[in-house]
Amino acid sequence: MQRVSQQKFDYLNLTLRGLVVISKALRKGYVTNQDVRKLYSLHKRPKRGENFLRNMVSEGYLKRAGYDKYVLTEKAYDALNTLYSIFETGQRNRILVVDNNASL
């Protein structure tokens, strides 16, 4: 027998700060270290912005396009499309996962 389970679709652990950075990069075309430092300076921690950018690159949301310039990747565009559709509809999509190897 097949067991069908439902899972909530939560887009790859994107934080609110990450959403702000991705939205700024979408609007501006790129994002710089200075942009992220300004975001962190609101909480008096501007030097953590560089580590945040490194994490965004390692997670695949941004890629380097030159010295101190980062542009969006396909993963970031997919995340934005998913989040905007959630905001518009007010509900999350559900994904059906079929596990053929599971026993009841």
Mind sketching the topology for me?
Blueprint: E1 3-8, H1 16-28, H2 33-41, H3 49-59, E2 62-66, E3 69-72, H4 74-89, E4 94-99
Antiparallel strand pairs: 1-4, 2-3
Helix pairs in contact: 2-3
Organism: Candidatus Marsarchaeota G1 archaeon OSP_D
Protein name: ArnR1-like winged helix-turn-helix domain-containing protein
Uncertain residue ranges:
1-11, 95-99
CATH architecture: Orthogonal Bundle
Write down the Rg.
Answer: 17 Å
Query: Which CATH C-level class is it?
Result: Mainly Alpha
Binned strand content: 15-25%
Commentary on this structure:
By secondary structure, this protein is of the alpha+beta class. It has one domain: Orthogonal Bundle (Arc Repressor Mutant, subunit A), CATH 1.10.10.10. It is 47% helix and 20% strand. The chain contains four helices and four strands; from the N terminus they run E-H-H-H-E-E-H-E. The strands form two sheets. It has a two-stranded antiparallel ribbon with strand order 1-4. Strands 2-3 form a two-stranded antiparallel sheet. Helix 2 (33-41) packs across helix 3. Mean pLDDT is 75; it is low at 1-11 and 95-99. This is ArnR1-like winged helix-turn-helix domain-containing protein. It comes from Candidatus Marsarchaeota G1 archaeon OSP_D.
Descriptive keywords:
two-stranded antiparallel ribbon; ArnR1-like winged helix-turn-helix domain-containing protein; 47% helix; alpha+beta; single chain; 4 strands; 104 residues; Arc Repressor Mutant, subunit A
